Amino acid sequence: MLAGGYSLGVSVRNLAYDRGWSRIHRAQVPVVSVGNLTLGGTGKTPMVEWVARWYRRQGIRVAILSRGYGDFEGVNDEGRVLEENLPDVPHLQDPDRVRIAGIAVEELESQLLVLDDGFQHRRLARDLDLVLLDALEPFGLGRLVPRGVLREPVRSLRRAGVVILSRADLVNESERRAIRAEAERRAGPLLWVEARHAALELVDSSGVSSPVSDLSSRTVAAFCGIGNPEGFRRTLLNLGVVLKDVRTFPDHHPYSATDVAELASWVNGLGVDLALTTQKDFVKLRTDALGGVPLRALRIGLEIMEGASVLEEKLARLLPSS
Q: With a threshold of 0.90, does the pTM exceed it?
């Protein structure tokens, strides 16, 4: 019953926008949306960062717009990560993204807007929809929320300008081909890009970095509160660590003093020489140790494996004419 109601609601909402019954507001500058079809982590934040960096390299003033889930001291965890990694790119958070689009253009003189988690937010018009599918669970268990984790049907990929298969390195080539074939069976021909989450560096609470090569053969305990903890676990194993245990928390978990004390006890009990977490979790902890064991964040960046020219050609079309 709930799944049927949700499906009907999604269909009616999309139809209202498709037919023009619901008003779509257009910003004064181009908008690139980064989104997905499913609940949970598909790599939207690294993709947003990649797109913003690409336009900054072209000399374009960019602003990021997001709703702001999981508020933490005024800015959520993903916002903190973007602020750290993109200090020259303003990041505005508000459920009313039409309003903050106007602020970004009129007050910050932005020349292009990146809409974070925007595929379902159709009230703000976009010039390009980038939609991510996670290679580990591309089709949300095949069912809409709440029976599965699809936010809308797979056929909605017809609205995508480019589909990006994230964590593509964690499945083999035949699986990647099968995912693309299934997506195109449901949505028709798609512009297709494949990407991976690349481990860039380790970071301490002061922002001092060290190379990921330092992890080889280290005995590690890891924890995270993200949408796809399995992706984090596999990334660590690919770096050659001896992974003693992984503890997971809900996405956007707000760490309490009790959580930190329990993590310290857990880490000490494992007898490891290093504790690791994600940058998204680390911005809420800001400590260099858990119970005497060094704690570091693994900073991740998106790396295009296949289809870079397809993606860049689409992005280049939105560059302001000189």
A: yes
